[in-house]
UniProtKB/TrEMBL annotation:
GO terms for biological process: methylation. It comes from Roseovarius ramblicola. The active site is at S65. InterPro entries: PCMT, SAM-dependent_MTases_sf. This is Protein-L-isoaspartate O-methyltransferase. GO terms for molecular function: protein-L-isoaspartate (D-aspartate) O-methyltransferase activity. Transmembrane segments: none annotated. PROSITE patterns: PCMT. It catalyses: [protein]-L-isoaspartate + S-adenosyl-L-methionine = [protein]-L-isoaspartate alpha-methyl ester + S-adenosyl-L-homocysteine. Belongs to the methyltransferase superfamily. L-isoaspartyl/D-aspartyl protein methyltransferase family. It is found in: Cytoplasm.
Amino acid sequence: MSDEADHSAERQMQFLFALRSRGVTEARVLSAMERIDRGRFVRGHFAGRAYEDMPLPIACGQTISQPSVVGLMTQALRLSPRDKVLEVGTGSGYQAAILSQLARRVYTVDRHRHLVREAAAIFAELDLANIIALTADGSFGLPEQAPFDRILVTAAAEDPPGPLLAQLRIGGIMVLPVGQSDTVQQLIRVTRHETGYEYDELRPVRFVPLVEGLGRDG
Ligand code: SAH
């Protein structure tokens, strides 16, 4: 093996080890995270840190989430291969790329057009043809594609947005951080039953805020 191949195999092993040690244990989630190279989604100054388990800055003042949090949120969604998923908060596109490996179709929206364009270009390069990336205010969901089997929100709202609850199919699951943006938030799972919604608290997390309206570049 060349030195470089050796180095990247070692890096990959450490990346997967960190995920496992933080509770990402589902084989199919781990294998999706093995297939999708996080290094493709981090540019510039921080590119060299793409394989560390930490959030990193991306364009438009946003962040790519910590890999273990991406893994835990993906596990919490309990995806099936037939699911139609909505992600609110495309950011770098990394989380959407992971979801694309485990679901039938992924709609991902961000309020920053620039982020959506960059992410869509990476999806095309990686041939991830089941992701549709759109510029939109995701706090209103995506009514024209509703209902969704799964919804993942990767920005924090104070409460689960009503339109997202309404766009969840009966039997569907939504995972999202709730709480104020400058404090520790709770990751929660909302399951929609015929008779109402069930809420589970999963763990404390920190996300950038869900902001209404399009970004200035949007
Ligand atoms: N899932 C991303 C990380 C998301 S960071 C990744 O894997 O890299 C949160 C993202 O939510 C930011 O890009 C921000 O622009 C977006 N966001 C915040 N409020 C939003 C809203 N109302 N609608 C859509 N996107 C929003």
